Amino acid sequence: MKFQKGQSGNPSGRPRSTARTVLRKGIEKELPAIVNKLVEQAKAGDVLAARTLLERGLPALKPEAAPVVLPGVAAALTPTEQAQMVIKAAAEGQLAPDIAAQLLSGLGQAARVRESDELAREIEELKKRIAK
Fold first, then answer.
1. 104-132 burial by CB neighbour count: b if 16+ within 10 A, else e?
2. Contact indicator for 52, 38 with CB cutoff of 8 Å
3. What is the DSSP secondary structure assignment for residue 104, as one 8-state letter?
4. 74, 102 contact by CB (below 8 A)
5. Which of 41, 43, 58, 67 is deepest in the core (most CB within 10 A)?
6. For 1-96, where are the alpha helices, taking DSSP H only?
7. Which residues, in sequence order, are CB contacts of 110 under 8 Å at separation 6+?
8. Where are the domains of the chain?
9. Which pTM was predicted?
10. 75 to each of 22, 34, 86, 117, how far by Cα in Å?
11. Phi, psi dihedrals of residue 8, rounded to the nearest 5°
């Protein structure tokens, strides 16, 4: 039997009250008591309770990077020279490895954009030469 277009294979749909919904509603009623108990256990030294509270109650911290100033990178002639300066700064401890990786990724993307521009220019020049 094939399904008919525009007709559901399950016309009554999923039941509104599932076991999960009932469980959630039951937990919601007891939530303040559950949280208080977890706090008590965490204060008493229960590491798992403390971890549960921290992981569920506080959002994860996101790293905030300060602006990076690398003298000479902008003035470097080639993308290779720029990348070498970033790698050197990371190796000398002037840059965190994750920041260096982000900078290298950005330099790589910029190089690809530059290559695309150059190829487009060369194609236009070839078209003009052929047209003559």
1. beebeeeeeeeeeeeeeeeeeeeeeeeee
2. yes
3. H
4. no
5. 41
6. 19-43, 47-57, 79-91
7. 79
8. 19-57, 79-131
9. 0.46
10. 64, 60, 13, 20
11. -75, 145
CB 100 within 8 A of CB 87: yes
**CA neighbor of 89 nearest in space, from 103, 79, 77:** 103
d(CA 94, CA 35): 44
Place of tokens 């290298």: 104
Per-residue pLDDT of the chain in tens (132 residues, 90 and over written 9)? 677 777 777 777 766 677 888 888 889 999 999 999 999 999 999 999 999 999 888 888 776 767 777 777 777 778 888 889 899 989 998 888 888 999 899 989 998 999 999 999 999 999 999 988
78 touches 108 (CB < 8 A): no
